[in-house]
Specification:
128 residues; alpha+beta; Immunoglobulin-like; 3-stranded antiparallel beta sheet; 1 helix; 7 strands; 18% helix; 44% strand
């Protein structure tokens, strides 16, 4: 009787684990790459300003989003540039960030597609 209960418990645990795994696994896109980062990743901290990147999916294309955070008690003017594998995409951009706030760089004029086979490590943000 004890063995039967033990086997039933193991079988139930196996089924439970199988259900959990089925929910975690996601199929790959037809393009052959999957970018699943949906959180900000700190890439640089300079002059008291923190720079973050993240990907954002729109349809079948992943785009790069940039966020600058000013944790200080005074507004700051910054200039920055963005490169991908050493090639400059945006150079000498200027923004003002209010005290204890953040700004996100992601609009129709500054869309940066991540591209097939690329990763966030291919991009670098430089605060001047």
């Amino acid at each position: 009787m004890m063995k039967a209960r033990h086997l039933a418990g193991v079988a139930a645990l196996g089924l439970l684990c199988g259900q959990v795994n089925a929910k975690v696994v996601s199929p790959a896109h037809e393009t052959g790459y999957v970018i699943t980062v949906e959180e900000w990743i700190l890439v640089q901290e300079q002059h008291g300003i923190k720079a973050y990147v993240m990907t954002h999916q729109e349809g079948e294309t992943s785009y790069l989003k940039i966020k600058f955070e000013n944790p200080s008690n005074s507004p700051k003017d910054i200039s920055w540039s963005l490169s991908k594998k050493g090639e400059v995409i945006f150079n000498d951009q200027h923004n003002r960030i209010q005290a204890q706030s953040a700004i996100e760089i992601y609009d129709a004029t500054m869309l940066v597609p991540v591209g097939a086979g690329a990763s966030l490590t291919d991009f670098s943000v430089t605060i001047h």
